[in-house]
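Friendly challenge for the regulars: who can give me the structure tokens for this chain first? No prize, just bragging rights.
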Amino acid sequence: MSITPSSLPVLQGRGGAVLTADRDALVLDRPREQVTFVPAAVARVRAEGRTVTIELRAPRGTAPTVYQVEDVSEAAAAVFADGVNAMLPDREDDETDGTALTVVRALTPTWHQRFVRRLLWGLLGFFVALVAFTVVAGLAGTAASVIFMLPIGGITWVCLGVGVYTVRRWLRERWLRRHGITVTATAAATPGAYVYMDGTGTYRGFVHGDDGPYVTVSYDPRDPADVLVPQAPHLRLLNTVLGSFLLLCSLGGVALLVLVVVDALTGGELSRGADGV
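First reply, four minutes later:
Bragging rights claimed.
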């Protein structure tokens, strides 16, 4: 039986926790994660003063998993608990494990998102430095210096971004293969969403671009919510070789740009010395 969101209040608790009824589920939003409870997973909701406790179903003889939201409105908590309990399916003799039906989704940026963000900021800094050096070379040297630096700088910028991304991602995958945990994530009801179980028995969700019935994911045991989908072996080899080559090219391009700037600042002594040799 579905839960009717319009008939239930929104509970706002301590530490930014928000408990709502969303379509056919209860949703608990916390600063670092979002927990989704389908009605079949919930045994009951208890309102105890200003604390709301969500008790999950558990097989007979095992302790149920509970989630609490503290410092909510006492009146709203009572209305919320009574409303949810009245609409929950009656399964007193059911041996359902509610934990297996509850999905935790991390709201904090993953390693991949943090890395891409830092890479973009680094590329922006490189672009600003390239423009500054080009202006300096143009003022100190000739127009030929500027004409030479613009295409070389653009190619170096692209090679640096692609090279750093592919090599760093390969190093992350390599570390996860040695020290992480690899599991199979199955497709969820939402297109592009997948669910996997970590080492603590918690079911975690994430969004990925694939449309298949399952994907292989790896995660750091110190942070099970941060997953990375490994590349196919042939694609990983191709990207690693290509990325390493582009990274070396970008380093050579940076060295060449530095030489052009130094040559412009010294009045062309380096180029005249090379011609003399």
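The longest strand covers residues 42-48. DSSP finds five helices and 13 strands in the chain. Your move, everyone else.
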